[in-house]
Specification:
This protein is α+β, with helices and mostly antiparallel strands. Helix content is about 25%, strand content about 35%. The mean pLDDT is about 95.
Length: about 140
């Protein structure tokens, strides 16, 4: 069911979403995006440049957070603006578990023209991986 502006108030929380991230996900994303940088799939290269291990693509992490918002609105077209700052990488170990990205959100403001600002907190493990993450959605 689509979220309606009349049913939303400042401070309302979006359902928390946790997304698993595996090395296989990174390979699929690399194929879809064309970003084959080896820090996203080769542990030797990642550690040689000072990373703790292979890391997820920043845009992949950003997309997961955006998905949490569009799943909440039930309308991908409702997302009209989206901004993040990349804070820390999502480290993806080469095991069966991989990593998890958790997205929490709340309505930060009701704006003009049926829009709402959604403030996001995006973490992996105990680390905040996206900073200043905000989405503007247009609600019916």
């Amino acid at each position: 069911m689509t979220v309606r502006l009349a049913d939303v108030e400042v401070g309302a929380e979006l359902p928390e979403r946790t997304f698993p991230v595996t090395r296989a996900d990174l390979v699929r994303y690399a194929g879809a995006s064309g970003d084959f940088n080896p820090i996203h799939w080769n542990q030797r290269v990642a550690t040689s440049v000072g990373l703790p291990d292979v890391i997820a693509h920043g845009m992949f992490t950003m997309a997961l957070a955006g998905r949490a918002v569009t799943d909440w609105t039930a309308d991908p077209g409702a997302l009209v603006e989206y901004h993040v700052r990349f804070g820390r990488p999502v480290v993806v170990p080469d095991d069966d578990a991989g990593a998890e990205v958790t997205v929490r959100g709340k309505v930060g403001a009701l704006l003009d023209d049926g829009r709402a600002r959604i403030d996001l907190t995006v973490t992996s493990g105990d680390e905040k991986v996206l900073s200043l993450a905000r989405a503007i959605v247009r609600l019916a």
